Amino acid sequence: MANPESNAPQPEFQSARTFRLPRLIAAVGEHLPQFPHSIAFALGLNLVLRPMLSPDTLDLLRGRTLGIHIEDAGIDLRVRLGERGFAPVGRHTTPDVVFSACAYDFFLMARRIEDPDTLFFNRRLKIEGDTELGLVVKNALDALDFQSLPAPLRALIERAGNMLATLRARRMPH
To answer: What is the secondary structure of 89-122 as a DSSP string?
Structure first.
């Protein structure tokens, strides 16, 4: 894995065209239990994101259900912020807002290679439901610096990005 702080060449990620995982992955992923993904997502939010959010943002999120749909992986994450932190919720709970994109575009946003607004206006990021809540979440995430994330999380994001870049290079002509 490449160290993002090294001078080693990094894979080329940005593209006008997006990369999507093979359809088979989503077909399988949609039939797998989603609750374990939501548990891991809630844990990550509590450990990493919640301490970085302002009290005003936390107040706006409290009691609201957030959804993340990774379209090409068939993953549907749902969490709600309660008094004790983010907790996973099942598919029976309708999210107040859902962010949908492919895995590659979520990586580009996490790594700060693509701006969420650009992806939104290019119809690669969809925000459905309570748009005011969606803007609060988007702005809170925009305020975070990738380098402020814990090193193991940055490494995991980079590793996932390298795998996606390798898959993309094999599937898309240059």
So the answer is: --TTSPPSEEEEE-HHHHHHHHTTSS-HHHHHHT
